[in-house]
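Here is a protein:
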Amino acid sequence: MMPISTQGVLGHFYEPADALAAAVKVRDAGWKHFDFLTPFPIHGMEEAMGQKRSWLPYVTAVLAVCGILFAQGLQNYVMVWDWPMNFGGKPFAAWPAFIPITFEA
């Protein structure tokens, strides 16, 4: 088991620009795992800390599109092929009626 490092740096900054400058200095000093806790987001802090852009938004968008296609496809399959029912004289493939159900799913 590796020993746990107890080194750290604590700073108190009154201006966001000072915190950004400190983040750049800490990164340039060779620290790889550090964090800044602020009461509000500071624009540019990710770049100053050397963090890469997250892949999570792209995965979320792809999975959202897959969910929409699956929900619309399932409703279309059920209402047109599997168990067609006439509700209020609407056509079987009435996709505007499927939008609220897709949004809920």
